[in-house]
Amino acid sequence: MNNSLIKLLFSPKAVSLSRRSLLTGAASTAGLTLFPLLNQLALANTVKPRRFVFFVEGNGVEPITMLAPSARQALNNSFLNELASHRYWYEQYRHSAVMDIASPDLAEAKSLASLEGLADRASVVFGLSSKISGGGHSNFHGALACAKTSNLVPGGPTIDALLAAAVGSETPFDAMRLGVINSGASLDFGITALRRGKASPVVMNPNTARTIYFAPAVDAVGFSERAQVYDVIRRGIDSSLQHFPSGAERAKLEAYAESIDVLANRHDRVAGHSFATMDIPGAIDTADPLEKYAQQAKLATAALIGGLTNVAVLPIGSSGEGAFDLRYGGAYNINRHSLHHQAETKSGEGGGEFADMIHAITADKIKNMTDMAKALAATPDSDGEDMLANTVLVYLPDTGERHHSRAAEWPLLIIGGEAMGLKQGGRTLVYPGIKEDAHRQLSNVWNTMGHLAGLDLNDFGAESEQTRKALGPLSELMS
């Protein structure tokens, strides 16, 4: 191995252009064997692995979809009236302390059949609210930010951005955001945000995502040409800077230069990553949102296992008025919005075949999460655990408990993360209703995620002193 090559790769004085040029030249010689070795060395010296994945379902997730028979019986014993055919029940809570219900039968819930074999590594959480996020059809960034979006402008950072800042530096991509919406747009800016007023893009086409994130493996020529484009742009900026010794125009050029350097350095990191063992799904040709969502989840799974990222967000139908109204194909052949209206009743009961279809579609979406969990559970991690033990997977609605949500309940399915400090074991946690002192909010879940990542996010979200029930993590979720 060439010592000067290693020194240049690890030298803090090495500029991105020199490193890029080096990588390009090394591709035909030592680089082919050097890069996988460097990946292994980096893995051996990294901190304890910590990963986070958020599956976000648009237009609500009805709590009944996650209610195990054991939990139903416990709730019936605590409610004034039995649940019967109710699909949501936030107004019926009467308990004043958290209920922790042993639920080894989680896979018997309406939409959790795919959890079979994983129930002991999962928890379902009921009783959390997020009034600050909004309600109705879509909260835009609200579910992941616990802050209100106004005129498509996020009211704060989403949880993935803060977690990516903590654990994303260990991977070529700090986060992957892959989703599906109704429009044909390749990108959407209505779901995740870097900070207040600064949205981040979600890639809405799985074929586009495949090209962006796995470029060296699926588009080697285009990937190589991209490095040359960065070099040309950077040289052009450097040349222009000579004509602007100071002032606003120079500041703009310097900002552009910084952006190009970020892209170029990321390009270098990806170029130095081994894709040889990744199970990268092929391109697809479909308009069915459920098939596209399954493909996005497979891409995220490959990226997590392959060490491309430690944070992923997978929303479906959860951005903007109208974007939630997906038209499902296959056996369903119906629009999401129409489906909900067909199933609605004033009491929240019944819904017949249309409610059954809603729950079947949720089951279809959740299967992508459980497939990912099983793949992670079957993969050894760098610390001797399986990858699922060091990965927290969260499934949640973007608006709350139903169509035209009141944001009064946010049912969650949480899988994995035991080695990170989460308590699983197959159980259902039910927090008291909004008026109780022991009631907790969705922001407390994100406080908990911050704790697992080594961050103090106890004041995460936009709740005021008057509306925030309590600061900090949910102790009931922790081991």
Describe this structure in words.
With 479 residues, the protein is an alpha/beta fold. 37% of the residues lie in helices and 12% in strands. It has an eight-stranded mixed β-sheet, with helices on both faces. The protein has a two-stranded antiparallel ribbon with strand order 5-6. A two-stranded antiparallel sheet has the order 8-9. Strand 5 and strand 6 form a beta hairpin. The two termini are 46 Å apart. The relative contact order is 0.20. The N terminus is likely disordered.
Write out the strand line-up for the largest beta sheet, numbering strands in chain order: 2-12-3-11-10-1-7-4
Name the beta content range.
5-15%
Give me the count of strands. Answer: 12
Instruction: Work out the helicity level.
Output: 25-40%
The succession of helices and strands, N to C, reads HHHEHEEHHEEEHHHHHEEEHHEEEH
Which shape, going by the Cα principal axes? globular
Tell me about the biggest sheet? 8 strands, mixed
Helix count?
14
Spatial separation of the terminal alpha carbons: 46 Å
- Which stretches are low in confidence, meaning pLDDT under 50 for 5 or more residues running? 1-44
Structural class: alpha/beta
Radius of gyration: 23 Å
- Average per-residue pLDDT, rounded, comes to 87
Structure at a glance:
By secondary structure, the chain is α/β, with parallel strands linked by helices. 37% of the residues lie in helices and 12% in strands.
